[in-house]
């Protein structure tokens, strides 16, 4: 991993006092390198224009940059650019997919999600099932919070129409074999929707190899601006499905009798898009590619393993998730006996360490573990071994305070 990577991210200088700022909440929101901030700022200060009205100079430049960002996303996923829809984030992408697929669902069909899903990949499908009288099924997990492929194999059947599954759990770091799950889904005639919010920032993704029908991720978790995201959809689906949001920029023809739509992806992008955000997202992906996702993943896994090893040996610490023996991402979830997760996060915050605490928008998973929440440390490319040491020392301090 490149040395002094934190120097590329102005927030670390801005938030450090006499103690360097340790940011361990990248699973919620990642920080932005200066190159991304510059790309966004350049759009606003030199060529801000609507990407639907590019007849004049800056308008054409804005269209070029916006479509350039789409090409960058397509390359990042090994997709075609006409399969990339810009959205405001994973939540918007998954809600859009659930609305788009409504026409494919009839009463009695099964829609499956796993128990480890973020609420964003849970509620849209639960609501779709309610609207269509379909059966909403939650795939149960193993004790350690992982999903066994045998469970999917046993539960997916001819009535299954959609399997919506996360690639990586945001709460435990467990990694799902989405390629195999897509294969199983297709084997029973179902579609497979992948929530890549926690994988796209950290590992190479090839949608052709995974063979997913849809895949969603958030720009703000891949070093990009907030309020940006992507919905990938296989070309054949995007051609067939009808839009769910209507307005300017997505039509072929409008008349009193009827209206018709532009081709995908434009027909799914009604209204003025967040062009600055998309352009920033494109710059973020090129920053990531400059380092390499394999290298990023190896670096984060190493830090997470180091943190787990240290925490595991501390009295009163309970770790959740698959642990160091199985494949995980750079996420470590734990509790401190006798302390509320929020209290531990507050103590760490006093040490200038930012972690997430709570149910992480994964109440079914918390229920599976029989707890109300955890403390979550999530590592990214800018974290270091010193950050792990600071975290461990901070947790030790919290443990001492709560007399573990
Ligand atoms: C796995 C997963 N899915 C969906 C989301 C929702 O992402 P956003 O809030 O960017 O829409 C998150 C955010 O934490 C996530 O971790």
Q: What this model shows, in words?
A:
There is one protein chain. With 404 residues, the chain is α/β, with parallel strands linked by helices. The protein contains 14 helices and 15 strands. Helix 12 packs across helix 14. It is globular and about 75 Å long. The two termini are 36 Å apart. The structure holds pyridoxal-5'-phosphate. Pyridoxal-5'-phosphate (PLP) binds next to helix 4.
Concise account of the structure shown:
The chain is of the alpha/beta class and 404 residues long.
Which key phrases capture this entry?
404 residues; alpha/beta; Aspartate Aminotransferase, domain 1; Aspartate Aminotransferase, domain 2; seven-stranded mixed beta sheet; 14 helices; binds pyridoxal-5'-phosphate
Task: Please describe the topology of this protein.
Elements: H1 10-15, E1 22-23, H2 34-46, H3 57-77, E2 84-87, H4 90-100, E3 110-114, H5 123-132, E4 135-139, H6 149-155, E5 160-166, H7 178-187, E6 191-195, H8 207-210, E7 214-218, E8 229-233, H9 235-240, E9 251-254, E10 259-261, H10 275-291, H11 293-312, E11 317-320, E12 331-336, H12 341-350, E13 353-354, E14 356-358, H13 363-369, E15 374-378, H14 385-401
Helix pairs in contact: 2-10, 3-10, 11-14, 12-14
Bound molecules: pyridoxal-5'-phosphate (PLP).
